[in-house]
Amino acid sequence: MDQRRRPPIADSSLALFAKGYAWLPDLRRRTTAPLVRTRLMGRHAVALHGPDAVRFFYDERHVERGTALPGPVLSTLFGHGAVHTLDGRAHRVRKEMFLSLLTGAEAVAGLVDRVGAVWDEAVESWSGRRVVLFDETSRVLTRGVCHWAGVPLDDAAPVARDLVSMVDGFATPGPRHWRARRARTRGEAWLAHLVEDVRAGSVTAPDGSALDVVVRHRDADGRLLDPRTAAVELLNVIRPTVAVSWFVTYAGHALCLRPDMRERLNTDDPAYAVAFAHELRRFYPFAPFLGGRAVTDLDWRGEPIPSGTLILLDLYGQNHDPALYDDPYTFEPRRFLERPPARDELIPQGGGDRAAGHRCPGEDITIALLRTLVPRLARLEYDVPEQDLRVPLDRMPTRVRSGFVIEGARVLAPAPKVGQAAS
Questions:
Q1: What would the CATH number be for the domain defined by 3-411?
Q2: Spatial distance between the Cα atoms of 29 and 236, rounded to a whole number of angstroms
Q3: Do the beta carbons of residue 297 and residue 308 sit within 8 Å?
Q4: Predicted local distance difference test score (pLDDT) of residue 66
Q5: What is the rounded CA–CA span in Å between residue 363 and residue 372?
Q6: Residue 140 to residue 161: CA distance in whole angstroms
Q7: Domain residue ranges in the chain
Q8: 213: which DSSP letter?
Q9: 393-422 pLDDT, tens per residue?
Q10: Which of 19, 173, 220, 356 gets the highest tally of CB atoms within 10 A of its CB?
Q11: In 94-151, at which residue ranges do the beta strands (DSSP E only) sit?
């Protein structure tokens, strides 16, 4: 059928907020076409899924990301002027700054070691009191990443609350969204002043730290970042690290439902810890989808996509696609022991090429932090009091309702290594 003769499509904005993560998968189940057609905020939109769709979506000849990000998302999650708003050479030059900070083995190890040390220190204070794992983890990650990034920090608690708010309110209207906006305003003001102090010489940035690299970075035009944009990008190093709180809390949820997995995590089995991290990121909801704009008239498997169309990549639906994963709604880390995830199949943080495209440069950090913190969590003995452990799909981003409350935490001795007999 000619695109101009297609029947009108109802706007799905209200359905998106009502159904959340299930919205796109539900639409996809209702059609036999290779894509879903809908409307969002009055704009014609199509939704794709699958590894081929990932490659199509991340091809800059097809899709432009920078102009597709709505203002409310920039004002909460990413920040105006962030790397996410750039395309082409400007994006690649700015992205290289993040890759230099977040992908090298030494940088990853430095951050992970620091966070692990802060976790071990924090756990000592958990004994004998009621702990909300989500809140405690956010403070641990805030302290760890700020120390690693060279950002001075007096009190982690208010900073952690603001960083969590930026993530928690980006995809929803109402009070959470306005808290996120206020948190971003405070965060950008704080870090912009810090950038100015470093450039004025009144504060010293540790050599090679994130603060040092961002302060000295020159964009594709050869200019230093202005203080506010530098603050935005510092937040784009710190904030995603603190967002790992969602997955550590999901790990507590998973271990509560599947206590049989604790023993294997409590052994020195790095392969299983990594597989568990991958399964956390696949199974539990985080980002529902990504958006971009068609830069020209396109064709997807015989279906026309006019220039300017909003193109959605269904992350949650793809991560639960039975064509890619057996029993996709069962939490089973062993699937990733049998077959490591392919680049464009497992896409909780986006897909495509990390160096050239918009894929999250902090994905290695996320996996490494989970590989470190989840076994530590498994080595804790604690009680789980009665609480609301639901993970509602109509909340975006969702989280364990209770934050996962534990009581009486104490560290167990590590189990023998895999293949090592107990003495």
A1: 1.10.630.10
A2: 35
A3: no
A4: 73
A5: 14
A6: 12
A7: 3-411
A8: H
A9: 999 999 999 999 999 998 876 555 545 443
A10: 19
A11: 130-132
